[in-house]
């Protein structure tokens, strides 16, 4: 199972794995795919630099990439404190009332600051740090990064990928200089559009002349083969790594993984309550509360994240699977057991080969 992207990146399998865990990202690369580390959780560029140093030492010389969150248009930004003042008091009151009603207790110490990685200036610092390391890919979760960022990446010999939920978005990305388009269907976890993968992938393949990765609803070799049949040059997988042994190693046993392991493909919801942009989350009592009639409308990015950041921290500490707030795709219905990344990768590859063999026999 080789495509042109295998030769481009020097990888064995055209499987790109997005994850917020450096342990998972490194394991994906070691297993022959391309691990892509999500950077949005890093408020401090020095912390990201330390983690990328660790990646350099733990990928056995195999390539890896990073994922940033950067809008193409540069927004006006103030300090985090100034942004906090833009959050209506009624929204803050709703969050506190909801946490109390769900039995989520306060935690000691100062409240957690919002994840500043959603800010354009912080995302730029992530790019600065990444380009000081041997990364092979910079992906942007919000579509095309600014053209000057694309040009800087190319000057360092680094390719740029951008997620797209429509063919028109993909064409715009390529016009801006993006090298790889990730066609992310409605089924996907996190930020996602309204068109299903089965429809979206061939539309984008036909619209652009660059390699396309299929994303959304991929968690088996049959689905990898389906992506190839639709014209993709590889797959982009995020949710499926959340129940790997290496993710457990990163976080320890968690209510989040318990909730994922027990969920079905019907147990997700697409909502703006996580970041302010539409994102698919695990359906829990927390998402239900925001869908109630008395709930306020979510705020735009990055204000919504700043609003709920401390709540997410309290929810994590509460360790209650019924309340967790976690982006995940509809593929969660297949995520019923914990396996090492290498085992997951081997199963994906062997399943793809079996499927292609069966199709050849038809």
UniProtKB/TrEMBL annotation:
It holds the Pfam family NMO. The keyword Disulfide bond does not apply. Keywords: Flavoprotein, FMN, Monooxygenase, Oxidoreductase. Gene3D superfamilies: Aldolase class I (3.20.20.70). It comes from the Bacteria. InterPro entries: Aldolase_TIM, NMO. GO terms for molecular function: nitronate monooxygenase activity. PANTHER family: 2-NITROPROPANE DIOXYGENASE, MONOOXYGENASE RV1533-RELATED. This is Monooxygenase.
């Amino acid at each position: 199972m080789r495509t042109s992207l295998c030769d481009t990146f020097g990888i064995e399998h055209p499987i790109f794995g997005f994850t917020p865990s450096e342990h998972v990202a490194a394991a994906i690369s070691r297993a022959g795919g391309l691990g892509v580390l999500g950077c949005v959780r890093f408020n401090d560029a020095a912390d990201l630099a330390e983690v990328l140093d660790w990646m350099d030492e733990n990928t056995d010389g195999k390539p890896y990439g990073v994922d940033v969150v950067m809008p193409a248009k540069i927004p006006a930004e103030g300090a985090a404190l100034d942004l906090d003042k833009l959050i209506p008091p009624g929204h803050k009151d709703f969050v506190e009332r909801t946490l109390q009603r769900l039995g989520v207790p306060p935690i000691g110490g100062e409240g957690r600051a919002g994840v500043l990685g959603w800010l354009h200036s912080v995302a730029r610092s992530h790019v600065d740090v990444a380009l000081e390391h041997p990364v092979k890919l910079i992906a942007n979760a919000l579509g095309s990064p600014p053209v000057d960022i694309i040009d800087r990446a190319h000057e360092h010999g680094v390719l740029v990928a951008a997620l797209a939920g429509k063919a028109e978005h993909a064409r715009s990305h390529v016009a801006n200089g993006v090298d790889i388009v990730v066609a992310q269907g409605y089924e996907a976890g996190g930020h996602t559009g309204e068109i299903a993968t089965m429809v979206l992938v061939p539309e984008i393949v036909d619209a652009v002349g660059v390699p396309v990765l299929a994303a959304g609803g991929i968690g088996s070799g049959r689905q990898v083969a389906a992506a190839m049949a639709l014209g993709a040059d590889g797959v982009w997988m995020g949710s499926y790594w959340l129940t790997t042994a290496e993710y457990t190693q990163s976080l320890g046993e968690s209510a989040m993984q318990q909730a994922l392991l027990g969920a079905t493909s019907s147990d997700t919801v697409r909502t703006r309550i996580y970041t302010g942009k539409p994102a698919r989350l695990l359906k829990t009592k927390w998402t239900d509360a925001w869908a109630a009639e008395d709930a306020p409308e979510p705020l735009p990015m990055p204000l919504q994240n700043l609003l709920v950041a401390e709540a997410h921290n309290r929810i994590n500490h509460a360790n209650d699977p019924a309340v967790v707030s976690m982006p995940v795709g509809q593929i969660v219905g297949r995520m019923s057991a914990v396996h090492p990344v290498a085992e997951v990768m081997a199963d994906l590859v062997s399943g793809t080969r079996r499927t292609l063999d069966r199709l050849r026999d038809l």
